[in-house]
C-alpha cells in the first residue's frame, strides 16, 4: 500500500519493522494484549510524569506489563499550579456575581437609615410630652440614665420605675 492509496483524514500509524518484530516475539511468549487502556503514566521522584497516550499494552501470565507507545513528559507541579489558577479565577467570577453592587449597597443603607429615623419618630410620639411621676427616684439617677442612653427624661423615669430604681438595669433596658 502506498501513500497515495490512503484516504485523506484517516489516522494511520506506521510501525517500524523492529517494533513489529518485538510485538510478534511477545505474542509468541504468551503475552495477552489489553484493549481498554487509554493512558499509561509513570511517576518519577521529582513529581514528573511520563505519560503514554493510546498505548499498546501486553500482560504476562505473571502479572507484568509491556507497554508500547510514545512517552511524553508532564510536570505535576505545573499542572497543579494551572489547576489552582483556574480555581482562583472561578472563585473570583463567583464572588463578583454574588457581591452586592454599590447601588444596591447604598440603597440598603438609605433604607436602614429611614427605618431608624421612623423608629425614633415613633418613640417620640409615644413620649407625649406629659410629665411622668418621678416620686421615689433621685434626680441624679434620672440624669445618669438620660446621659448614658441618649433618651428623654420621661423614658428614663419609666425605665427606672420598671427596674425598681436600679440604674444599671434601666440603662440596659433602654440600650
From TrEMBL:
Record-stated family: Belongs to the NAC-alpha family.
Residue ranges of every copy of the NAC-A/B domain listed in the record: 16-80
Transmembrane segments: none
Lineage: superkingdom: Eukaryota
PANTHER family: NASCENT POLYPEPTIDE ASSOCIATED COMPLEX ALPHA SUBUNIT-RELATED
Location of region: Disordered: 119-138
Subcellular location per the Swiss-Prot or TrEMBL entry: Cytoplasm
Function: Component of the nascent polypeptide-associated complex (NAC), a dynamic component of the ribosomal exit tunnel, protecting the emerging polypeptides from interaction with other cytoplasmic proteins to ensure appropriate nascent protein targeting. The NAC complex also promotes mitochondrial protein import by enhancing productive ribosome interactions with the outer mitochondrial membrane and blocks the inappropriate interaction of ribosomes translating non-secretory nascent polypeptides with translocation sites in the membrane of the endoplasmic reticulum.
Extent of Acidic residues compositional bias: 125-138
One Gene Ontology cellular component: nascent polypeptide-associated complex
Entry protein name: Nascent polypeptide-associated complex subunit alpha
Predominant subcellular localization, coarse grouping: cytoplasm
Pfam families: NAC, UBA_HYPK
Amino acid at each position: 500500500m502506498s501513500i497515495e492509496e490512503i484516504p485523506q483524514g484517516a489516522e494511520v500509524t506506521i510501525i517500524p519493522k523492529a517494533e513489529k518484530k518485538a510485538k510478534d516475539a511477545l505474542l509468541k511468549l504468551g503475552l495477552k494484549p489489553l484493549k481498554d487502556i487509554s493512558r499509561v503514566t509513570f511517576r518519577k521522584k521529582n513529581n514528573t510524569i511520563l505519560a503514554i497516550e493510546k498505548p499498546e499494552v501486553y500482560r504476562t501470565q505473571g502479572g507484568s506489563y509491556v507497554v508500547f507507545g510514545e512517552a511524553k513528559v508532564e510536570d505535576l507541579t505545573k499542572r497543579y499550579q494551572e489547576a489552582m489558577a483556574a480555581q482562583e479565577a472561578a472563585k473570583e467570577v463567583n464572588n463578583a456575581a454574588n457581591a452586592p453592587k454599590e447601588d444596591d449597597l447604598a440603597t440598603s443603607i438609605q433604607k436602614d437609615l429611614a427605618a431608624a429615623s421612623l423608629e425614633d419618630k415613633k418613640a417620640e410620639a409615644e413620649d407625649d410630652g406629659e410629665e411622668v411621676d418621678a416620686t421615689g427616684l433621685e434626680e441624679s439617677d434620672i440624669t445618669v440614665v438620660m446621659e448614658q442612653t441618649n433618651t428623654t427624661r420621661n423614658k428614663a423615669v419609666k425605665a427606672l420605675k420598671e427596674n425598681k430604681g436600679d440604674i444599671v438595669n434601666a440603662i440596659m433596658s433602654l440600650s
